[in-house]
Amino acid sequence: MQFKLGKTAASALAIAIALAVPVSSASAAMVQENEQEQISWDLTDLYPTLDAWNAERERINTEIQTIAQYQGTLGDSAESLLAAFDAISAINKEAARVFIYASLGGDEDLRNADGQERLGLARSMFAALGQQTAFIAPEILEVGGEKIEAFIAQEAGLTKHAFQLRDILRQKQYTLGGEAESVLANAGEVLSGPQRIYTLLSTAGIPWPKVTLANEQVITLNQAAYTRYRAVQNRQDRKKVFDTFWKTWKTYESPFGQTLDTLVRTHIFTAKSRGYENSLEQAVSNSNVPTDVYRALVNAANANLPSMHRYLKLRQRMMGLPDLHYYDIYPETTQLDTEFSVEEATKLTLESLAPFGDEYLTLLEQGLSADWMHVYPQPGKRSGAYMQGAGYDVHPYVLLNYNKGFEDVSTFSHEWGHAVHTLLARANNPYETYSYTTFTAELASTTNEVLLQEYMLAKDLSDEERLYYIDRALEGIRGTFFRQTMFAEFELKIHEMAEAGEALSGRRMTEVYLDLLKKYHGHDEGVMNIDDAYAIEWAYIPHFYFNFYVYQYATSISGGTMFAERMLAGDATARDDYINTLKAGGSEYPHPLLVKAGVDLTSDLPYTTLINRMNRLMDEAEEILDRMGK
User: Fold this and answer.
1) From 216, 259, 281, 523, which residue has the greatest number of CB atoms within 10 Å?
2) CB 386 within 8 A of CB 20
């Protein structure tokens, strides 16, 4: 997310978390002891001691209170404008460093109350920063574009702030007066209430049931257990897990519906308050992404549902099932009896990314040789994986939960894609314009995954091995393109319903989600049976609390596949287009930046490129299955 000044407390906090890009997998969600000695990051690169962190946090809290002196001065002269923006930028940069020290330290062990308290202190610091900078945008607008442009031309030091200043001016019609902006900033914590309620209710408010599996194992079916056991090979166990888990969630349909409805209405409130046409327009406005991108994605997914249905029938064939149910969506259809050490993951990542060239690989090797990663699962550690790149004067950090499977290698490459993106953006931009949006961030990771898959498929493999890697690639397309677009379509539908004055309830959301589940999975066409009881799944998805966020995963796998396909096909310009996109950081708006690089996500081409690859992989999988007599 771009460096933003003073719309809400949340926008200030986003400076620090914008480059903490998460990805989850089933293996990453399993916290376990490891025989290996933990490979961990060196947080002393941020602060040498906890006392030093505390001292810096207190200093920044004091500095935040000095921001008020700049109110009313922004239009006095180019020098006064530069002084204000330089000072606030410096506070933001150091505040981000304070935040990530607390965040990274806390994620090592979420059970540690001291670590969580430090993170709370860092969040409060950002809330104060958002409140103190709420005057900036209204005052810049009052000064006016003509005078601001004259200041930029007059004072060279304002060059690094020019993008932000012009971005404020771009959003003039959606920016309120100083008093109203201050009210919205102060309301930030209240408006984020639904997210906090969802987190509390979904993690601590549900009494999880116990299930006895076919092997007599008794499990407590919480969210982590569901993630693990929904993918077991025993079909009756899978059905029991689904039936029990979703029956439990169904009990809470009304409170989760009320929570999500309240969130939707906070989005509508903010959009109306600022004068946006609708919630979608408001959500994508900060990144200046056209709403046409969102709608083009949804249209493309719907147009290509026959390929999704073909893949599901292929899964059925590979699993040897007489029919297909929603509880058959997660188990692996192929097995690979191979473990990959971290050293092997490093080697495969470097070799598969050779098309990026020496500049990229040099930065990757630099990072891989340093103490920037926290690698293995351990008790209390945050699940999943992410890259945290908000420490401009330090380096990126990578959190993994590495379990030696191929999916872990893919996640390894994914997160290092984010890390090198950050290194390239930082090397080519000042702090004020290096922080890129999620819209481009996921390109840097999904392109890596596609290149890794194609690298493995280029090897001399047995039919069984080829089928495994093809299956992993196809499952990535299903999960990242079709599933995330289904989420995006659900999110858009419930917002449009509320905006049209329709009542939203948990029951109504279940009905909407059920229709989408059936459409995307070919229920009416006889492809997969969708049991009504499973449509409560919407209540389980945390991404619906991130305000039109998930669509970016689907656009990114489409754009990333297009970049990878161009490079592998020998397109002479593809590598430079890609690297230049990463180098741009946040110095340009993401949509025109990608259009300049040959990837227009309002057009059909990126989506047809992805689907063509999907169909090509399915062609080969069917040929292999024919040879194997399956």
Assistant:
1) 259
2) yes
Q: Are strands 218-220 and 397-399 parallel, antiparallel or unpaired?
A: unpaired
- Three-state SS at 325: strand
Beta strands in 195-343 (DSSP E): 210-212, 218-220
Strands 210-212 vs 397-399: parallel, antiparallel or unpaired: unpaired
- Label residue 245 exposed, middle or buried (CB < 10 Å: 0-12, 13-18, 19+): buried
Chain mean position to CA 599: 20
Whether 152 contacts 159, CB under 8 Å: yes
Tokens 């099932």: give the residue.
321
Q: Which amino acid is at 521?
A: H
Burial bucket for residue 410 (CB in 10 Å: 0-12, 13-18, 19+): buried
Read off the amino acid at residue 302. N
The residue from 181, 407, 415, 454 that is catalytic is 415
Token readout for 618 is: 């399915």
- The secondary structure of residue 20, as a DSSP letter, is -
In degrees and rounded to multiples of 5, residue 77 shows phi and psi of: -165, 165
Name the strands in the sheet holding 373-374, side by side, starting at the edge strand that comes first in the sequence: 21-23, 385-388, 397-399, 373-374
The kind and range of the H/E element at 385 are strand 385-388
Task: Report the candidate in 457, 474, 465 with the shortest Cα–Cα distance to residue 311.
Answer: 474
Helix (H, G, I), strand (E, B) or coil at 232: coil
56 noted as active-site residue: no
- Nearest CA to 198 out of 551, 494, 546 is that of 546
Chunked into runs of 10 residues, the chain (630 residues) has average pLDDT values of 32 46 42 68 96 97 97 97 98 96 93 90 92 92 96 97 96 81 74 82 87 95 90 96 97 95 93 93 93 98 98 96 96 91 97 96 97 94 91 96 94 97 97 93 93 96 95 95 98 97 95 98 98 97 91 95 94 95 96 96 97 98 94
Helix axis angle, 78-108 to 113-132, nearest 10°: 160
Q: Which of 371, 8, 374 is nearest to 182 (CA)?
A: 8
Token pair in block for residue 400: 């993994």
